[in-house]
Design brief:
The complex is a heterodimer of chains A (250) and B (481). Chain A is α/β, with parallel strands linked by helices and 250 residues long. Chain A has helices at residues 40-48, 72-78, 95-109, 117-130, 136-139, 148-162, 178-191, 207-210, 230-239, 242-247, and strands spanning 2-11, 14-24, 29-33, 54-62, 65-66, 80-83, 90-94, 141-142, 166-170, 197-201, 215-220, 223-228. In chain A, strand 11 and strand 12 form a beta hairpin. Chain A starts with a strand and ends with a helix. Chain B is α/β, with parallel strands linked by helices and 481 residues long. Chain B is 25% helix and 33% strand. Chain B contains 13 helices and 23 strands. In chain B, a hairpin with a 2-residue loop joins strand 3 and strand 4. Classes of the chains: A alpha/beta (250), B alpha/beta (481). At the A-B interface, helix 2, strand 7 and helix 3 of A face helix 10 and helix 11 of B.
């Protein structure tokens, strides 16, 4: 589904990704761990198409298509979803209206008619329950006055609404208490199918107790330096990142 | 220039969609302005002698006045001898139903994308279309008549209800008030007159569609609305104009009067031709709108959505004379390309316990300049007056300007005045968030801007709010790469 080969990218003069390679297939859950400043969030932003990053070498294909040539909104309509680390507030725009526009943008891309109001409301009602989001949040302005945990749940709700092929979660667990963490993880687990895939970026192992990854990658200095199964995450938690640094000779 | 600027630059690059002209014969006055012009217009309107005298007095006052220069807009000196002051549609048909209306005229409204208005007509909204200075169609007059409501062209009111007109015309905006009100008083050709009798709640939204059509024809509309004790009316004014190369002057005067416990809600959606991308052409919109809360507990509420005109210069105001009276002003002003807007309001507190609320949202794109200018004046007599003002500016790009000029004149220590102001830009993070959900830049800006204006839109009647959103989209639309 997603193939990244030898990806180099920079922002301004600073090179952040230095030859990253990663393959994600349908039905898989990948976790990316690593210390601060190694380029994890940059990777998420580049896949999603944020323009401030300049790709200097390498390729990224999504279902065989070169997505580096697509705008961020095209990528989203193709089925790439990013759950933001810091979701923004949009004053005066309700989550309902926002989601309706987003769902219809995707449907249009797929050659479908706009969704019927009744079906849309039914879908909203179903999906919000996945993350135990109260009905009242849907008519409020997006993220305005939401707590950190509510914002993250709203991200997973949006993910459920848009039914993406590839979901990238950028430190969704940061700032979540243990209950919110469980709610978010349960929601994600219910969304998992054999046809979609997840890329979970995190500092900590604890989220991976709830969402069990098929692969764990450790990122360091703009590259993936180690790949293993869920046990690698446990080992990281136990031993910290220093041994990785030693192992790669940093 | 960053990518952000490129995106927004393209965004705010769209051209006027409603540029088209209709070919309906007009009956026009000779070019230029003199006492003869005033006499010509008065005669055309079959006016009584007192009205002609009123106009001539205004004209003579105007001759002694000078064009004001204090506003934050710039334009070449207007040559008032270069303007045609009267143009009327030649035939004045009397219709009973829409089927009988000139199809060309209906086609105009179709082009404006107003199928809803037709629906409104059918659904029971009386519409007094003003086409080139002349009321061409008035519907549902009979229904209104049953309730004693008068809704007609001002020229008809001058002939049919001279006592009311004599009593109130110029009572809120006297001809000598300012340069353009004097000009309007001398040469106004048409407009609407509304009278709501005591205790009557007008059962429908009254609306007028203004349209400037003949080349070089200044429009001098005159609107007078009187709400008697305990009455209520909601009045809608919407405008759009065809594309023209010459600048067109529009200097309307609107006067509102509310008696005890009466309320007038006046809503405007204005989309006149703003000029092309280089700033050529476009309408000059110099309007004097003022309401007088004459009675106790009365209320006047102005809501405006301004997307058009090369230059907009207007301050719908409220004089809060009656005790406990309320004045409101809700405004969205959008400027793009080379448009200039200097708009705002005046809230004049005279009566005791009077309250006013101002919510102004300015949106600037391109190389436009958008100014809010507001005055809150609390007189000695206005014990316990209260005002709340909120003035927000949204910038789309870095070549435009937003300015705020709030003035306060407080002469009573018991007054309570609150002012909030913000200036913001549509940030890259906000756009990216929307993009990531599959929305194009265009859709994203549209959504963000509409959200930003929500507080004002919700003051508009439902159908009008939908139209206003559509207009906003059109004014900010563009091809995005």
């Amino acid at each position: 589904m997603l193939q990244i080969k030898n990806l180099h990218a920079r922002v301004g003069d600073k090179e952040i990704l230095k030859g990253l390679t990663l393959t994600v297939n349908a039905g898989e859950v990948h976790a990316i761990m690593g210390p601060n400043g190694t380029g994890k969030s940059t990777l998420a932003s580049i896949i999603a198409g944020k323009e401030e990053y300049e790709v200097t070498a390498g390729e990224v294909t999504f279902n065989g298509k070169n997505i580096l040539e697509m705008s961020a909104d095209e990528r989203a309509r193709e089925g790439v979803f990013l759950a933001f680390q810091y979701p923004v507030e949009i004053p005066g725009v309700s989550t309902t209206n926002f989601m309706k526009a987003a769902v219809n943008a995707k449907r249009k891309h797929q050659g479908l008619e706009p969704i019927v109001a009744k079906d849309f409301l039914k879908m909203m009602n179903e999906k919000r329950q996945l993350v135990e989001l109260d009905k009242s949040y849907l008519s409020r302005s997006i993220n305005e006055g939401f707590s950190g945990g509510e914002k993250k749940r709203n991200e997973i709700f949006q993910m459920a609404m848009l039914d993406p092929m590839l979901s990238i979660m950028d430190e969704t667990d940061s700032g979540l208490d243990i209950d919110a963490l469980r709610i978010v993880a349960d929601g994600v687990n219910k969304l998992k199918t054999k046809d979609n895939a997840f890329l979970i970026i995190t500092h900590y192992q604890r989220l991976l107790n709830y969402i069990v990854p098929d692969f764990v990658h450790v990122m360091y200095d703009g590259r993936i330096v180690k790949t293993g199964d869920k046990n690698l995450a446990l080992k990281m938690e136990e031993r910290g990142y220093d041994w990785i640094k030693e192992e790669v000779g940093a | 220039m960053s990518d952000q600027d490129t995106i927004l630059g393209e965004h705010i690059d769209s051209e006027y969609k409603y540029g088209f002209t209709t070919d309906i014969e007009t009956d026009t006055a000779a070019i230029g302005l003199s006492e003869d012009t005033v006499r010509f217009i008065s005669a055309k309107k079959k006016e009584p002698e007192w009205m002609l005298e009123w106009r001539l007095t205004a004209y003579r006052q105007w001759l002694k006045m000078k064009q004001p220069k204090w506003q934050n807009v710039h334009f070449p000196e207007i040559n008032f001898q270069d303007i045609i002051y009267y143009a009327a549609a030649k035939k004045k048909p009397q219709y009973e139903s829409l089927d009988q209306v000139d199809p060309e005229l209906l086609a105009v409204y179709d082009k404006l994308g107003l199928p809803k208005e037709e629906q409104k007509l059918l659904a029971g909204v009386a519409v007094d279309f003003v086409m080139d200075s002349e009321s061409v169609i008035t519907t549902y007059k009979e229904t209104l008549k049953e309730k004693g409501i008068i809704f007609c062209a001002i020229s008809e009111a001058i002939r049919e209800y001279p006592d009311l007109v004599k009593q109130y015309l110029g009572s809120v905006v006297p001809p000598r008030d300012n340069y353009y009100s004097a000009l309007n008083s001398a040469v106004f050709s048409d407009g609407s007159f509304v009278y709501i009798p005591k205790g009557v709640r007008c059962p429908m939204e009254l609306s007028t569609y203004f349209r400037i059509n003949a080349q070089n024809t200044g429009q001098f509309e005159r609107t007078l609305i009187i709400a008697e004790e305990g009455s209520y009316v909601s009045y809608l004014e919407g405008c759009t104009a065809p594309m023209r190369d010459e600048n067109q002057l529009h200097a309307a005067v609107v006067e509102l009067i509310t008696m005890d416990n009466a309320e007038i809600k006046y809503s405007t959606v204005q989309n006149w031709y703003p000029g092309d991308k280089e700033g050529k052409g476009g309408i000059y919109n110099f309007v004097t709108k003022r309401g007088l809360c004459k009675g106790h507990n009365s209320k006047i509420s102005w809501t405006q959505v301004e997307t058009g005109s090369a230059i907009t210069w207007k301050y719908p105001s409220c004089i809060l004379k009656g005790d406990n009276s309320i004045g409101e002003f809700y405004s969205v002003a959008v400027t793009n390309n080379y448009q200039q807007a200097d708009t705002g309001t005046k809230m004049i507190h005279i009566g005791k316990n009077t309250r006013s609320r101002i919510v102004s949202k300015g949106i600037s794109g391109g190389k436009s300049q958008n100014s809010y200018r507001g005055l809150v004046q609390v007189h000695k007599t206005a014990q316990d007056a209260y005002n709340f003002s909120q003035c927000d500016s949204l910038l789309l790009g870095d070549k435009c300007g937003a300015h705020t000029f709030p003035y306060l004149e407080i002469k009573n220590k018991s007054a309570q005045v609150e002012h909030e102001a913000t200036t913001s830009k549509i940030g890259e993070d906000l756009l990216f968030y929307c993009n990531q959900r599959g929305l194009s830049n265009e859709e994203a800006v549209d959504m963000i801007v509409n959200g930003y204006c929500k507080e004002v839109f919700k003051q508009l009647p439902m159908e009008f709010a939908v139209e206003a959103q559509k207009l906003l989209s059109i004014s900010l639309e563009g091809s995005v790469g």
